[in-house]
């Protein structure tokens, strides 16, 4: 995750003091994504939320971090809606500890298709890191 931290502007020596992401909060986040509820998503994001994705050159991902709340909400809702037909209803989101932080795994059958790391600040989502690189997902 050192590459993710560098993209987020966090040095290797810096301790990240993120708030614990509660199960109820993650449930609201996932429900908002599944329903494509942009207004609910916006209410869960900080003004300066940061979205970083890592496809490792193997799958499509954003080449640059995105740090506009409206864009992040629309991208997340659109991405979930866009991949549903590809997985034909077999896509499942499960809560999992990732690198000592709260995360979400998107699963299709027994295959992990994405790992999502979340960090909160002041009760809202401040950073989202989405791992899509199949080589990294084999280690989750």
What does this entry look like structurally?
- This protein is an alpha+beta fold.
- The chain has a single domain (20-137), classed as Nuclear Transport Factor 2, Chain: A (Roll), CATH 3.10.450.50.
- The chain is 35% helix and 32% strand.
- It has helices spanning 2-7, 23-35, 38-44, 69-87, 134-137; strands at 45-54, 91-98, 101-108, 111-121, 124-131.
- α2 runs antiparallel to α3 (38-44) and α2 packs across α4.
- The chain is globular.
- The relative contact order is 0.21.
- GO terms for molecular function: sigma factor activity.
- This is RNA polymerase sigma24 factor.
- It comes from Brevibacillus panacihumi W25.
What class do helices, strands and sheet pairing give?
alpha+beta
Unreliable stretches (pLDDT < 50, length at least 5) are 10-19
Largest sheet: number of strands, sense, barrel closure = 5 strands, mixed
* Radius of gyration over all CA atoms, rounded: 14 Å
Would you identify the CATH architecture?
A: Roll
- Treating each run of at least 4 consecutive H or I residues as one helix, how many helices? 5
Q: Do you know the CATH topology? A: Nuclear Transport Factor 2, Chain: A
Percent of residues in helices: 25-40%
Morphology call? globular
Compute the average pLDDT.
78
Kindly give the count of domains: 1
Give the N-to-C terminal Cα separation: 12 Å
Q: What are the secondary-structure elements, in order, as H or E?
A: HHHEHEEEEH
For the largest beta sheet, what order do the strands appear in spatially?
1-5-4-3-2
Number of β-strand runs: 5
